[in-house]
């Protein structure tokens, strides 16, 4: 099948180009960027933690691999990547869009909004204290074996950010600021998706919350475990909540959130439902005994991380307390910590009084770390925020990358692969320079001596025609 461009159509196409591109320049999204980074990197690698966060049961839970320790330069690069909307296909979404600093790196919506307006399958989990999840797995269903593996998955997810790793590398390489940042972090300006994963992981593992009222009171409290005695810097209500939290015969919350990081070592089934519509870990590994088990996030800053649970079903902390008080369901895989009379017993019923339920909420609110929420180390480094608050713009049916380009130009089509396509390349004056015919979802063309400047691509198929600018450097 052949496609022809009649002379009249050519004139119309050129006129459309002229109208659409009366002000030639870099294509949308390729704007001048201002970064506000310190002259010397912030301290990420050697944060001085209080003694209670250096206890063996906390340090032994650290999932940092030997091959990717947190460095100041690596976490700085990770910080820039984390806030950069270039990591999404249409440059509207960054990691920080769903993991907001002021909310302890979670989202206030039950389900987060992706780059084309779609919704994620689960609530965005807080990233604070992620390094202290002992088994090192990530996502609610623990499908990522490591944080390094996890960081690249949202970028490629077709609901969340929708960018291929090849496009990611090309896009970052065509900026002025990334090659020096990669050089500082990895002693080479070469940009690879593996290095992106390493840097993002370093930044996330650096997110340690350690200056809450709980931490301050812990350091002036009498020696001994936190539930042993009232603390002088707590109110009577907060001390009651603390006692309930740590008492194995009352609240027993510490059975899961047991270290000073307030995070469990592995997944749990907390009896949200009698039958699990979302199978969690069991849906990943196929083990029936793991159906309904989910990763356990840290309770630090929990006051700010609503809505709660993997599906965001609870809007208030009081609802969470009510669930554990008298709402736990007898799921076949209910975790033993939530059972009475042994590992096969019925769900525990705490029978808390209204004052006790409120005291637990008051204690949990002492875990809010205002310093962490305001610390510039974890804040947006762009002078004008790149994290969009506008409605995401839907993409069309094809992507051109890298753009600007220096040698090869690649096309990725979200169109039928069995059709024949014609591609036309015009210069800025509307002169037809090259034409190509191809089938499939991918096509590449070489610069082949073209001078630097603005060009236009026209793609035609049976379904229609589409135009894009192309900048050659």
Give a quick summary of the entry.
With 473 residues, the protein is α+β, with helices and mostly antiparallel strands. The chain is built from 14 helices and 7 strands.
Write the layout of secondary structure elements.
Blueprint: H1 7-20, H2 56-59, H3 72-83, H4 95-98, H5 147-156, H6 165-173, H7 178-186, H8 193-205, H9 213-220, H10 236-246, H11 281-285, H12 317-327, H13 354-365, H14 370-374, E1 398-401, E2 408-413, E3 420-427, E4 432-439, E5 442-446, E6 453-461, E7 464-472
Antiparallel strand pairs: 1-2, 2-5, 3-4, 3-6, 6-7
Helix pairs in contact: 3-7, 3-8, 5-8, 10-13, 12-13
Average per-residue pLDDT, rounded, comes to 88
CATH class of the largest domain: Mainly Alpha
Q: Spatial order of the strands in the main sheet?
A: 4-3-6-7
CATH superfamily of the largest domain: Cytochrome c-like domain
Oligomer: single chain
Distance between the termini: 34 Å
Number of separate domains:
3
Query: SSE order, as H and E?
Result: HHHHHHHHHHHHHHEEEEEEE
- Estimate the strand proportion: 5-15%
Mind telling me the C-alpha Rg?
26 Å
Number of helices: 14
Find the CATH topology of the largest domain: Cytochrome Bc1 Complex, Chain D, domain 2
Which structural class do the helices and strands define?
A: alpha+beta
Overall geometry comes to: elongated
- Helical content stands at 25-40%
Low-confidence segments: 1-31, 388-395
Would you count the extended β strands for me? 7
Note the main sheet: 4 strands, antiparallel
| Overall CATH architecture of the largest domain | Orthogonal Bundle
